[in-house]
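Protein: Gamma-glutamyltranspeptidase
Species: Rhodovastum atsumiense
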Amino acid sequence: MDGRRPLISARHGLVAAAHPLAAQAGARLLANGGNAFDAAAATAAVLNVVEPFMSGLAGMGMATCFIAAEQRVRVLDFVTRVPGRFPTGRGEESSRGGFACGVPGCLAGWCELVKTHGQKKLMEVFAPAIALARDGHLVIDHPGATLLQAIAALRDFPCYADWCAAYLDEGSGEPGPGFIMRQSALARSLETIALEGPEYLYRGELGRRVVAHVEALGGSLTRQDLETARPHWLDPVAVEYRGLDLHAPPPPCEAFQFLLTLRLLDGVDFAGMERDGVEHLDAVWRAIRLAAGVRIAHNRPNATMLAGLLSEPQVAPLRARLREAAPVEGPTGPGWPQPEDPAKGHTTSFAVADRHGNVVCVTQSLGGLSGSGVVVPGTGICLGNFLFWSDLDAQGDQPLLPGTELTLPLAPVLALRQGRPVLALGTPGSHGISQFQTQVLVQHVDFGLDLQAAIEAPRARLWDGRRVQAERRIPPATLEVLRARGHDIEAVPDWSAKLGGMQGIAIDPASGVLTGGADPRREGLVAIP
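Structure follows.
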């Protein structure tokens, strides 16, 4: 045995998610006649239960979907706007409490997937999450470690008592070996949502309770913010790479950094390079830095500007810089955080494919670790803190203005070959998302690794200046040469959760066989119906 996870393949459906129970829930929907859209919503809802510190119905996210009936890719954007009464220019910054609470978007997104393209009723879709929330689940490994991190991060905030009531006071009490997390309040909320629909939150009693609690904590969320929150179907942005048409969410989402990185690497011949060798890693890291600099300098581009940024006249000079000997400095600014920020980057991603040819790739988050930390009493609902990701200075680079769209680095990606989907790929990681997507895609497409092996391959995270965090599985001699080339490398553990939690699906266009990939850096699992 080589220690690798086995390849999981199927003909009639597959789910790859960051937690086994979530992947199994999605697969169960597929087995019971649901399609990829039903299974995606079921998987997302179970992740709310088993990874409540990463994502939930009050978070935000995006889904990139191949809709078989329409033979096209579309993006569902459920990233909501800044509350209309947000105090512009407020001179303080807080990632916790009422001030940090944004408008819930995930529930609207999940329900839109089911309503527009699904085949099941909400009660059937949410049934696995309701049962797990009510009965409880064993918290171990990565979720257990994350629970302890959340306790340490939140214990000094006034919202901690309500948070504890939701996650610690039922069942076994304080976490330890054998801790069972039960969330009966969340089960009741999900059950009523399944009966009444998303309007229970966005126009009904649940929404009134959420707004009243946030207002009492000094937040700016209003009933109008909830009532006007709507997911939006968008056309993706696409580029070609090695015969693949890669589709990602459009701006204000920052996924175009990933597409630009591939445009730069399209001029690199990896065929003669050693995999994970100096030339391979140097080219990829330099391309990532160059693309990030463009994204930060031209954030939120309109369609015309974005087409220019991805065009050959703009890309060619950047490709030339890849071949220069001089080191490439990483950009600085709010879009490329200088220090490691443990309050950001707690996100999850998953992918679903069904027997009908539909493919859904979702990335969703609460923003930071347990979001704002605000759990509305009696509901089990934890509110996100994506407002903390922008600039509170109205004159800043990414000003946080009332009613405006948020700019987030989510990048669920679909690849098509000759009009047919062949790859779905997504990961958490904040501004590392586009970096990790690039590294895995090069391993899979350019070096020919199967998807599981590509996900398991060692990765790196680039920061400001020349700083790089690289997994120790990269040979020390290779890292030394890369240091000599100007990369300030810090070796991190062989398998580091700092470097994402990739989940994906590869599809053989000839046979239709689905192969899943799940990241061992998280609790990832591939499940089949």
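Remarks: The mean pLDDT is 91.
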